[in-house]
Amino acid sequence: MAAGQRGQSPLPPVFRKSHVMNHFLDIHTTDPAALRVMIDQAQAMKTARNGRGHAAPDDEQPLAGKMVALIFEKPSTRTRVSFDVGVRQMGGQTMVLSGSEMQLGHGETIADTARVLSRYVDLIMIRTFEESVLQELAEFASVPVINGLTNRTHPCQIMADVLTFEEHRGPIAGRKVVWSGDGNNVCASFLQAAGQFGFDFTFTGPPPLDPEADFIRFARERGSDVQIVRDPMEAVQGADLVVTDTWVSMHDSQSTKERRHNQLRPYQVNERLMAAAKPDALFMHCLPAHREDEVTNAVMDGPQSVIFDEAENRLHAQKAVMRWCLGV
Ligand code: CP
């Protein structure tokens, strides 16, 4: 019997709806084996693109016929551009939506927004404030939802960071990662990744800005050696990777700026701090950075810095995340 007759789809394969629907909401809620598959696939896709222009399509077009909605309730450069480019490289199309211009920002419920968008698009990526918005969207959407950052976590960033570390230094399992500064949403996802990828994690920062206890508990329960060390010079001893981030995140009140700067100044990543880590330690920052605040120019632009590889790897890691979400 020919395709298109009784019980069979008349549509070419690329337009058939995938039966796989994996949400990518957080590192700790994603199976570690799946995380490993995504990292390895990201590396393979990156290698396969070697030497092509950014606009060149991939040989494989797994997102052909797919529409992806990218919703932003906060500013973004890397997340916005890397998702948009990644979808296009894989043959799909995007629409970038600002939360404030949608009915979502004017009283329509998240549940109704999720149900409506699911009738139009194949995948939703959202950057929002409260984690509850992401969770409700995922609960009511009948298409996969990706966390593009909330106040609590930033899993796509950490997928890129793991990919970047392994590209430069091999397996991250068993290595020591040190976070210096504010225990923010990126730090939280790093802690979750410590548990899932099997690396050790030391936080150094002032007590009011410690990461949430839940994140620390998760990593420890999964066997990661998690330490909180107040002296940054002591914390970075033996570090394979030193990471920091902005001292005032997008959801933090600007009124806290002066206090935070005073609290966090001792945790600036500078050449002296990097010199106390392993000689081949890498430096990462998810960007945007505030040069000469949380990190000096000398470190940002120095030989241990892999910040622009990190930014590029958002693209490759998220392509693998999208493929996993859709099962394509
Ligand atoms: N690191 C990161 O998420 O960058 P954007 O805020 O520019 O997306």
Using the alpha-carbon principal axes, give the shape.
globular
For the largest sheet, list the strands in their spatial order. 7-6-5-8-9
Work out the strand percent: 5-15%
Straight-line distance between termini: 26 Å
Helix content: 25-40%
- Per DSSP, the total helix count is 12
Number of β-strand runs: 9
Residue-averaged pLDDT: 93
Main beta sheet strand tally, sense and closure: 5 strands, parallel
The unreliable regions are 1-8, 12-16
SSE succession: HEHEHEHEHEHEHEHEHHEHH
Helix-strand category: alpha/beta
Give the bound compounds.
phosphoric acid mono(formamide)ester
Rg, nearest Å = 20 Å
What report would you give on this structure?
- Helix 4 links the parallel strand 3 and strand 4.
- This protein has helices at residues 32-48, 78-89, 110-117, 131-140, 155-169, 185-197, 213-221, 232-235, 257-264, 271-276, 297-300, 307-326; strands spanning 67-72, 93-98, 123-127, 145-147, 176-180, 200-204, 226-228, 241-244, 282-285.
- The longest helix is centred in the last third of the chain and has 20 residues, at 307-326.
- The model is unreliable at 1-8 and 12-16 (pLDDT under 50).
- The chain has a five-stranded parallel beta sheet, with helices on one face. A four-stranded parallel beta sheet has the order 2-1-3-4, with helices on both faces.
- The chain starts with 31 loop residues before the first helix and ends with a helix.
- The protein is of the alpha/beta class.
- The structure holds phosphoric acid mono(formamide)ester.
- Residues 76-79, 149, 157, 286-287 line the site of phosphoric acid mono(formamide)ester (CP).
